[in-house]
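Much of what follows relies on a compact textual record of a protein's fold. A record is reproduced here so that you can trace the correspondence yourselves:

. . .
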Amino acid sequence: MRVPLSWLRELVEVPTDATSEDILATLVQVGFEEEDIHRADLRGPIVVGQVLSFEEEPQKNGKTIRWCQVQVAPEGQTAADGGEAVHGIVCGAGNFFPGDKVVVTLPGAVLPGPFPIAARKTYGHVSDGMIASARELGLGDEHNGILRLTEIGLDDAPVGADAIALLGLDDEAFEINVTPDRGYALSLRGVAREYALATGQDYRDPADRSADEIGEGEGFSIVVDDERPIRGNSGVNEFVVRVVRGVDPSAPTPSWMSSRLNLAGIRSLGVLIDITNYVMLELGNPIHGYDLDKLTGGITVRRAAQGEKLTTLDGTERTLSDEDLLITDESGAIGLAGVMGGGTTEMSETTTNVLIEAANFDTVSIARTARRHKLPSEASKRFERGVDPAIAFVAARRVADLMVEHAGGTLDTLGGHLGADIVQVGIDLPRGFIGALIGVDYTEDEVTSALTAIGCELESGEDADVLVVLPPTWRPDLTDKWTLAEEVARVYGLDRIPSVLPTPPSGRGFTAAQQGRRRVSNTLAAAGFVETPSFPFVNEAANDLHGSASGEHLPSIRLANALDGQAPFLRRSLIPGLLAVAHRNTARGLTDLALFETGAVFLPEPGVTYGTDEVPPLGAHPGQDVIDALNASIPPQPRHVAVLLAGNRVLKQPGQAAEAYDLVDALDAVRAIGVAAGVTIDVAQGERAALHPGRTGVLSAAGVEVGYVGELLPQVSADADLPGRVTVAELDLDLLLSTAADRPVAASLATFPAATQDVSLVVGTDVAAGAVQATLRAGAGELLESARLVDVYRGAGLEDGTKSLTFALRFRAADRTLTAAEATEAKLAGVAAAERDLGAKIRD
């Protein structure tokens, strides 16, 4: 909401030296947010001039210019630009006469644009300034010629006077952000009241007019026929019309009104429309004017028929919904209620009789219509937030009075009114409730004073400990004792509320699973990986390829309102998202990538239908059975962690060849994840549809499969436009953490020396090295500290179908130094277990 400063001063006492910055600082104290300050984009010298004479000079291009002699200062005085009192000025307009007073921009002035003015040679003369039009001064869009002061009632202005101040162009406006619950502040009436509330200054309500003074027209037919109320409410609560006859639509808008509208962000569109906009800004009630002579019969307010058409004021033909509320006459629809009028009855340059409409429409109905037609307007912005239902009569009469004063009209007795009595519902406010809720010891006088200041009426309830509060009609947001408490806190300043750090109960904080997920993410980030969260939306082919080991089609969750029609499914794997991120970075020249993501995947079970039509009611906590039913209506959503490596781990430099990421780096990332999760992850040979045969591993922890690691097939990498080898790993993080101990335990430091021995075992080529390693560990017992594979041999000296695996074994005891015999005995026990279980033999 933009608020011209001079306008605010008319409604509330503002210190003469207060700036827009000062007023914004004051309004912030009562809960508004400052947005901006707007000042007229022009600079003087701009003065009142009088045309002494002119000569018309036809030009070769067919245009006729006037070489004018214009007095810009009293006789015998120097002009504001330091020049002579009479300036020669070239002007192309033809709507002025000798003796007219005009606005002259002298050399050195700057007009909106910015457009600097200087003396310049044109059409054979040196034009020493410019005679300005209303549009050039920023007073409106009218550009039929230059601005004649006699047309706006300023013919008595002295020559040489400052035209900026005379026309109100020295005004400025401040802008505040108005939240949806405080629609009353979308008016000068509301903002002035809030400023008075914050400062204690005297406030004059522009809507404070008696019923006798306002009067009421009669004889005009108004009917409401709402067969489809929204939420049980009729679409219109109040509808008032008045008639003004004999208006002159060509009458100029007063300069002060044009200036204020311009500062408020509304273009001047002619005196009749300007007046309706001016009253809307002043009182907060949108007004619509009809050309009375274009109306057929009375007005009926009804819902549209499905598919009905209406051409609105912007020239667009709109197809209507049966929820749209219409203003109609006997000819059909003439306006989209509360949003925009229709083109058939709009006020124009031929209008002489005006029907003024001031109404109050249902907030939800207007909001839905404005959004349905993508047609936000100044009117809908106010109606959807709530307009004071008691102000329609005042607003209609205010428009009529201004049209009589500035457009030469006459107020007719013809008019009409339709609406129910306003019923105010009291709010029970227990004494002491606000202080206990806010944490401030407000006195009873402070509470009653604050509520009275915002416009509430107070009554004693049947219970002496309860106060009954009647909110003002312009505050539909005050609905209960909690909103009243907020108002009291706002009036006396939120800075009065003490800052008390709550003491959390023992045992609160992150769960074990949350801590585990954070450790995994922090570990990968510390290892040089970059976390890249992505949208969980993929296409069906990506889900089939990466969401199952074999690449077979498995059920996926399809979104009913997908953001991207090409990716309507929820992901079964994190790998497609990482591939998309890698592609985007590679396309921008970032080819060396170590990425990771943690997030949910969605794994619906075959044959199960998910979703529910049962939505729990608002305002009450659902029972456990309702929560269980809602949880059962969604598919399993385990959290996964995935990594992707592409490009070089070590960049090429003098004396150092480039080293590309490979499967070993992916396995290192997997082991780092295992350490962070507090589990040991085993790797075994495996297969997966998207991964290279022979370069794919199945990951397990405590005997449970938790994920996979491997190198993408070249075709899969090429389809993602990724050059070179790309390695990936993905683990079920929830499952991994569930296999871990409650808390990772650090290994104790050994104090006794280790005994090392090697062993080479011959096994079949189909026996996995990991299985041999695990069997050695189990057979050797607690003395075996580690068994590490150091060599694999196939070839001469071995039987066909066999291979030799060499392990480096390290033995250690916690309480003594081992002898060579003890280490050998443990080694042979491990070899015996491998021979028994896997058919292994010691290589000769």
